[in-house]
Amino acid sequence: MNNFKNLRGTVDLFPDQLIKWQNVEKIIEEQLLRASVKEIRTPILEMTELFMRGIGEGSDVVSKEMYTFLDRGERSCTLRPEGTASVARALIQNGISTMPSQKLWYMGPMFRYERPQAGRQRQFHQLGVEFVGYESLRSDIEIITLAWDILAKLGIKELNLEINTLGDHIDRLSFQKEFLKWLEVNKNSLDLDSQKRIDKNPLRILDTKNIQTKKVLEDAPRLFDFLSEKSLQRYTNIKEQLKLLKIPFLENFNLVRGLDYYTHTAFEITSGSLGSQSTVCGGGRYDNLINQMGGKETPAIGFAIGLERLILLSGNNLEESRETDIYIVNKGIHAETLAMELSRKLRNYDLLAELDLTGASFSKQFKKANKLKSKSIIVIGDDEALKNEFVIRLFNEDSAQNNEETISLDDVIKLDNWLNKNLLIKRS
Ligand code: HAM
């Protein structure tokens, strides 16, 4: 027989681990709702062309990391490596020109064929936020503060925000011309990876991790010096605003991001506790993407947070699960039928009830209730069931006698009153 295993770089998540994921997702969704950001869901599978055009063929993501295959109709399809291009496609396809500006979020799996290690997987999850149709400085600031506040709300400390500006298309062209000249002269002093990037994606060389190349780059022309007056002013204003809002940041002239669509503001949030995969959030402005993909000119800005890295960073307090309110102990043919009926009735209340399905002895079922630390217990034997009744009480030995009540299955009012008085639970 085959021993099936999951694919390298993918992960199974079990109920105990998912408690934290669900708590994190809930906090994020609440925070986004408060900021009036609405959810969008796009397909996980897209035409390959979308990412080649959207992210850029010279980027590592497109040239080395995509999960691409031909479907049965011989169409080239790709499992999305990120969400921004898909959101842009969805908006263009559905007539963005007739819509007002959009504040959107998405959460879900992304796929990149990278070398797996702690905090880096081949199937990973992102929360992405995209503000489409927004040009103002305030939208840059709102995006950065939203990312910062989500991380703060989750209790994550010791984060570093790094920002840079990539200028507009024209700024970048004039920089690139000078930078390419410099690269030709200094080519042999660069590491091999950087040398390969000269033709494909020279800007990415600035982001190298190679210490020797980093040193050599210190003498290279800086994109910053090629910014137009307008781009420079925009960047200066953003820094001013961040200072006013007391959001600490560092400037990093080498922060160029791995995807080709960025213009002006680029930012990343990192944490020292994450080791080598330290970036928990990355984002920036992408004013040309929608136009490049066939839509009308539409300014936009966004970010994505890697959920695996977020989970590694968030505290143990998010591992707490909801307590069981009622455990239904039942034994006997009639008792089991009544217990099933009762558990369906209990789903009309805002409570967590668990029906024992084992048919084990009463004492074993009590032990299970005890292990779960259930707040209360319902006991049904055939004697009660034949009278269409059940016994309910708090699962606390001291108070067992005072609050024990025998209730008929049809007596909704009596059940309401007991739950309300003893567990503060109401019908939902
Ligand atoms: P990104 O920087 O490629 O940006 O990814 C954002 C975040 O996703 C990273 O900072 C990291 O936390 C997480 N991440 C990326 N790759 C992996 C991986 N292999 N395993 C685990 N986590 C990973 C984007 O994807 C852009 N779409 C962000 C954006 C939205 N820019 C504008 N709007």
What this model shows, in words?
The strands form three sheets. An eight-stranded mixed β-sheet has the order 1-5-6-11-10-9-7-8, with helices on both faces. A five-stranded mixed β-sheet has the order 13-12-14-15-16, sandwiched between helices. Strands 2-4-3 form a three-stranded antiparallel β-sheet. Helices cover 39% and strands 21% of the residues. Helix 1 (15-34) runs antiparallel to helix 5 (137-153) and helix 5 runs parallel beside helix 9 (229-244). The chain has 16 helices and 16 strands. The structure holds histidyl-adenosine monophosphate.
- Poorly predicted runs of 5 or more residues: none
User: Quick one: how many beta strands?
Assistant: 16
Oligomer: single chain
Ligands, deduplicated? histidyl-adenosine monophosphate
In round numbers, the mean pLDDT is: 94
Main β sheet profile: 8 strands, mixed
Q: Whole-number radius of gyration?
A: 28 Å
Based on secondary structure, the structural category is alpha+beta
Cα separation of the termini: 49 Å
The dominant shape is elongated
Strand portion, in percent? 15-25%
Number of helices: 16
Helix content: 25-40%
Q: Strand sequence of the main sheet, in spatial order?
A: 1-5-6-11-10-9-7-8
